[in-house]
């Protein structure tokens, strides 16, 4: 396995390092005792331009060790600066237990391995940065199975529209969401990034007693929330195989 200096140099493109020198950042600004004094210069090149707090240094060092264990020497490649800089800038605000931190880790590890770089898109770092932890969990869960939802709505004949949506059954794991009331917002946000869709599989009219087709009073829908093809690629690249445990 390569030494830590090689790992760090691959994590951040040389252009980032050049920017540090251009900005005249002091070498004393960064201390990474965990990595050893022989890594101080290289670590400074990575951390100085984004003004990392001391608490992030330990977290970042742990990530470097994880990357070091995950990628064989012969597979290690340089990550494009447009990806690594976005990921590391966002990671400094996250705790290691946050699903988004784990997604950034996974993405950077995939991007540093010549055998998995083909799974990575430059936009993935920006997408992770826009997610909430609940949305990250939803994507992980959807990778295992679709969310099946059956609901009913009343027909407002005066306004010619359906109202009063009521859910009959749902497989959405709301008990694992911090804010399940925001499910509609989560879906709209994920859909706007082309990660999920919510097709109606079957729609059945509801009639007044007697099933008179002239007296429809509502509708019953069978639907499912599912990953799009792009969403599947995103999850493959960014969600750890073991999930967020």
Automatic annotation (TrEMBL):
This is DUF4393 domain-containing protein. It comes from Mariprofundus ferrooxydans PV-1. Gene3D superfamilies: 3.30.110.190. It comes from the Bacteria. Pfam families: Abi_alpha.
